[in-house]
């Protein structure tokens, strides 16, 4: 390719985005370059824009929820070829640390994430290891395939909690990850309820997806939990809020001998009532990002109609207006559930 530069949306510093020319990413051995087709905006991208990211340094090209088409391959491609439509697995692991040796690459001690530690995909091209690409059907719209990543984070939490048919699953938080948890848990056969203090989020989840929603701030919340579970309480509680207050109270909603899974990340100390924890003999799990098997499972579930990814999308922009659209979506807050930038 004679082209030497590309357009990318660069976060120069907090609240300062710039759509500008940057060097075209190289394709070292074992890597492939992917021409972007669609980028989904994540809550972590918005946190970075506001200066609230725990891990990101500036300047940075954001974006890790990605779909594109393979432009160049440097190495053994396996079943992939130039021109294939792919979902990008945005986590770069070392392959040799204690976690990687246990096939827990998502817990790699030097894990790097596109758009956080290294340049991301709100750009015309991105370069990633060949093994980080998952082929998706040509019939799947790129804006749907871009949602495989956040839905896989949700699916990983469901898998970590060993959710199965017949479980009562309470999802705390009705944002994109919480909604994805509800969709994945339902696909696994569980009886699911979604709780959020935001009426806007509750209404979105109920109206677009038909999930039963609850208000955890309501006076009758505890009574409704007991009524739903025949006085047992949910045996799985999955907290996607990233809220210290929610993290601290989640144990109170859990059944005896139940499982509590934290998928939302917050920066403070995780606090649980020790008596509440012990009398339940509860099992507490952390759920960190996703693994490739979660990507494959989500792809299968979207294709089968069990996970309804496209209903998550509320806003779409073209790449030329990515800066203006990103800033507008941030200003509208919760009114934008999932914004997609399309690159054509």
From TrEMBL:
Alphabetized SUPFAM superfamilies for the sequence: GroES-like, NAD(P)-binding Rossmann-fold domains
Example GO molecular function: oxidoreductase activity
Protein keywords: Oxidoreductase
Keyword Oxidoreductase: yes
The Enoyl reductase (ER) domain, residue ranges: 14-341
Record keyword rRNA-binding present: no
PANTHER family: L-GALACTONATE-5-DEHYDROGENASE, L-THREONINE 3-DEHYDROGENASE
Protein name as it appears in the record: Galactonate oxidoreductase
